[in-house]
Structure formats: structure tokens, C-alpha cells
Amino acid sequence: MRMFKTALVILALAFTPLAGAQEITRHNEGNLFYTAISIPAGAETLYLSGSGARQQEDGTYGDMRQQAIDTFSRFQDTLEELGWSMSDVVQVRVFAVADENGYLDYTGFNEGYLEFFGTDENPNKPVRSFLGIAELVVPGWLVEIEIRAARMPQ
């Protein structure tokens, strides 16, 4: 009898869905980002990096806001080509340098960022790091961004 009860318990556990086990869960929402995102086993992940702004007609790359918009637009294009979307982005890591006047434009970056995250079209926000650094490889870039996307298999 004991073995029968043990077998029933094992079968019940095997067929009991785990609450939230198959969802990407966001925690501690702030104005710009979440502080934690749980990604369950079995999720698909995609990493994109090394992207920055496009050079404009005048030979510059624009201000921080424009560079953020250009960079996230490039990510959006790549994600969509691969069948993903900006709503799948779970992490953003930003490397930023000050402009020629020594100003690190965090506000300008956030203005560009908010065109892609926390919007009516994409209410999701990733976790995020913003790092001030001395310089980037491409002269004129004020920002370089890496992203991580995750989604449950379809």
C-alpha cells in the first residue's frame, strides 16, 4: 500500500503544472526598468551587441538621444528579421561616454530609450545597466549597447 501511495504522489507531481514555471517574470518595476527578471529553464535567448549609431549626412553621429534611437532601431530591425521583437528584450547594458564638452547625457539617453520600452506598443521594460566609460572604439559614438532577449518557445 505504501508503494502505491508513493506512486500516486509521484504521478500527481508529474502532471501538476508549476505556477509561473513557463513564464518570464518581471520584478520590482521602476520608471525606466525592472530590477529583476526571472527566465525559466527552456527559454530561448538571443544576444545582440556591438551596435551604435549610424553616421549622419554631416559626418557626425548626433547627440545621445539620437544615438540611442539609432542603436535601438538597429536592434529592432535585427530582432524582427530573426522573428523576435523589442518586447522580448530582458536586459540592456549601456556603455556611454561624455560628449566633447564633458557632459554625460543620461537624460538624452533615457528619452531615446523610452521610445522603445514602457510604451503602449511595448509596455515591457528590461533590467538595465548604464556605465560611464572613457571612450568607445568608434570616434564620435557616445553610446554602445548590448541587449539580451528571451522568450518561451513558440
Description:
The chain is an alpha+beta fold and 154 residues long. It has a single domain (20-151), classed as 60s Ribosomal Protein L30, Chain: A (2-Layer Sandwich). Helix content is 25%, strand content 27%. The protein has helices at 2-14, 64-81, 106-113, and strands at residues 25-29, 34-38, 44-51, 89-96, 127-132, 143-151. Strands 3-6-4-5 form a 4-stranded mixed sheet. It starts with a helix and ends with a strand. 21% of the residues are buried. Mean pLDDT is 87; it is low at 2-20.
Structural class: alpha+beta
Binned strand content: 25-35%
CATH class (first level) name: Alpha Beta
Number of strands: 6
Strand order of the largest sheet: 3-6-4-5
Please, how many helices?
A: 3
The chain-level mean pLDDT equals 87
Distance between the termini: 42 Å
**Which fold name is given in CATH as the topology?**
60s Ribosomal Protein L30, Chain: A
Give the full name of the CATH homologous superfamily. RutC-like
Radius of gyration: 21 Å
| CATH architecture name | 2-Layer Sandwich
Share of residues in helices: 25-40%
**Biggest β-sheet: count, sense, barrel?**
4 strands, mixed
Order of helices and strands: HEEEHEHEE
Low-confidence stretches: 2-20
What does the secondary structure layout of this molecule look like, with pairings?
Elements: H1 2-14, E1 25-29, E2 34-38, E3 44-51, H2 64-81, E4 89-96, H3 106-113, E5 127-132, E6 143-151
Parallel strand pairs: 4-5
Antiparallel strand pairs: 1-2, 3-6, 4-6
Helix pairs in contact: 2-3
